[in-house]
């Protein structure tokens, strides 16, 4: 029988807390990317014209086509980024679960935008749960456009026990 851990927090987590990781940069967003994403998202309905009709979009407050809020310019990379080695700040524990996420949106993405993404381990907390010591990690991902305007912030919660 093994002894229960005093903490699931690793030294790597302590060292990485609050430090932004390497950046990823998307290729320029095209009207075609936005149109295809909107068609897939709204299928079988017709997507709102703001996502595909340039003449209509010019008459809106945005002055042109914008991407749906859930658009992901990183969705189909030619080369997949390497996964972090050594746990990547996930913490100890044998079982990992997705605890959900919360997105906050800034300016809409537009054709021609190049999005830069960066991620950091924002925070964590531990507590005893039904399954024993449980660690909740909060990872923050930030997207900015080429004008350094905030596009999206995502807080993801990881649960380990």
Description:
The chain is α+β, with helices and mostly antiparallel strands and about 160 residues long. The chain folds into 2 domains: about 1-30 and about 90-160, Thiol Ester Dehydrase, Chain A; about 30-70, no CATH class. The chain is built from 3 helices and 5 strands, in the order H-E-H-H-E-E-E-E. The chain has helices at about 10-15, 30-40, 55-60; strands spanning about 25, 95-105, 115-130, 130-145, 150-160. A 5-stranded antiparallel sheet has the order 1-3-4-5-2, with no helix packed on it. Strand 4 and strand 5 form a beta hairpin. The protein is elongated. The two termini are about 15 Å apart. About 20% of the residues are buried.
Averaged pLDDT:
90
Poorly predicted runs are none
Strand order of the largest sheet: 1-3-4-5-2
- Helix content, binned percent: 10-25%
Percent in strands: 25-35%
Number of E-type strands: 5
Judging from the principal axes of the Cα atoms, what is the shape?
A: elongated
Main sheet properties: 5 strands, antiparallel
The CATH architecture of the largest domain can be given as Roll
User: Which H/E pattern describes the elements?
Assistant: HEHHEEEE
Structure keywords:
single chain, alpha+beta, 5 strands, elongated, 161 residues, five-stranded antiparallel sheet, Thiol Ester Dehydrase, Chain A
Report a brief summary of the structure.
The chain has helices spanning 11-16, 31-42, 54-58; strands at 24-25, 96-105, 116-129, 132-144, 150-160. The chain is elongated, with a radius of gyration of 20 Å. It has a five-stranded antiparallel beta sheet, with no helix packed on it.
